[in-house]
Amino acid sequence: MTYNHPLWDAPSSADEAAAWALVQKGLAAKKVSPREKLYLNAVAALFKDAAQDRKPRGTKATVIAMAAAYASFPDDETKLFYGLAILGTIKEGTKGLSARRRQPSSSRRSTPTVQTSWCLHI
Q: What residue spans define the domains of the chain?
């Protein structure tokens, strides 16, 4: 959340470069838990091409990676990060859940779960 904030301003180039440097450091770590590895894969999918092609919003690859994290760790924290990954791919101004149809099938399957999670935390 420090470098990626899909619900408001896109990260700056400096933020993206800093995030990618931290991801690389995490991926190179000798001791990483299975959960940390899945989270790192999701963040890597978001920032790996930042230098060449700025991605002000999330990517489908990030959603797919977070789907894998959620499949392995279906707790509230992972569910909320998964929900943010999904929301980050929805183009600004999209009405309702019409953007849901453009999501990969793995994220469509989880959307009611994510919606329930958001409602429980409001």
A: 13-120
